Amino acid sequence: MDRPTIKDIAKLANVSIGTVSNVMNGKGRFSEETRKKIEKIIKQSNYMPNVAARSLRDKFNPLIAMVVPFAPRGEIIVNPFFAQLISGVESGARDRKFHVIVTGVKDEPDLSFLLEKNINGLIVFGANDSPKLVADIKKLQLPTVYMDSYLSDGDLYQVGLNDEMGGYLATKYLLGLGHRAIAVISGPICEVKKVKTIGQARLSGYRKALEEAGIEFNRNLVLENEFSVEGGYHSAQQIMQLNDRATAVFAFSDMAAMGLLKGFYDLGISVPDDISVMGFDDLYFSEYLTPGLTTVRQDIDGRGQSAVKLLIDQIENKSNLEGKHIISPVSLKVRQSTAAVRKR
Questions:
Q1: Cα 249 vs. chain centroid, distance in angstroms?
Q2: How far is 227 from 197, CA to CA, in rounded Å?
Q3: CA 283, CA 98: separation in Å to the nearest integer?
Q4: Residues 230 and 262 in one domain
């Protein structure tokens, strides 16, 4: 017979996975009857946690997890954005003497494996309004901070970014250079009104700047390609085939902008002489591209530290003066990939 899991124990006891975890860890609220029933089942089934055959009541395990819903479990995330974000999370955790693991949970039907790793808190990146995912995370009864998720539940701890302002600043800057046909690489745009995404927020800022300038929004200039090098690279040819010839492109991520630069180079299109390119994030490599990438800057490392501080304060029951919601600012970083529109 396979070794029983915490999910099996919860099913036999007719309680939630979180309640089993609370009994094992000696924390939270549960009745004496429930405790005895769970401990009896654990003993009879010879259940042992995966990480250690002991109770965490005797020793606190300073471990938190960063969870990425759209990445498969066990996959190494190669996106430099996550490398910088994880660096910030680890830096903040190290200052508080905590350790961090990173895992994807895409297509993961059961999140109870997180409890078996004796994790004390979660940082969830990019959850958006996914009722099932959020409900599954709540069942774990772990302190949690959501990053860049745009969740409507005001009771959840969240660290966000002023994405709309970023879209507005970038577009306004390009308009100031004389560009009137500005294409965007937006990532997938969800049409469900209640669901908000990073791409939608940045597109909202883009549209606001156009409206202020008296320019009608042109849906044909919006390319819903992925925030990836490949997505940006393939966008280059699509942009050159548009009936409405764009003089500038605003990619909603530096990764897409990097692919775009390579795509234009292979097509013999000069940046910024023939077309300007704007990114978003200000990743560490952005200034070392040729040409250097003009972009919307966010403090990725600092945001990771803010998220881990908010989480560990929850774990240690410390009051947080910043409240449950932190919105980080953005700014413009001008380099050589943008220039005034050429007169034709």
A1: 23
A2: 13
A3: 26
A4: yes
Helix, strand, or coil here: 281?
A: strand
3-state secondary structure of 95: helix
Q: Which SS3 state, helix, strand or coil, does residue 338 take?
A: coil
Q: The domain spanning residue 134 has which CATH number?
A: 3.40.50.2300
Domain count, the chain: 3
Q: What is the domain extent for residue 75?
A: 63-151+301-328
Q: Which residue has the higher pLDDT, 39 or 285?
A: 285
Half-sphere exposure of 196 (CA within 13 A, CB side): 14
Is the CB of residue 245 less than 8 Å from the CB of residue 219? Answer: no
| Dihedral angle sign, alpha carbons of residues 235, 212, 296, 123 | negative
Q: What is the pTM of this model?
A: 0.80
- Name the β-bridge partners of 157: 145
Residue 158 structure tokens: 């969240």
Q: Looking at the structure, tell me whether residues 306 and 187 fall in a common domain.
A: no
At 267-319, the pLDDT tens digits run: 999 999 999 999 999 999 999 999 999 999 999 999 999 999 999 998 888 76
The answer to whether residues 244 and 319 belong to one domain is no
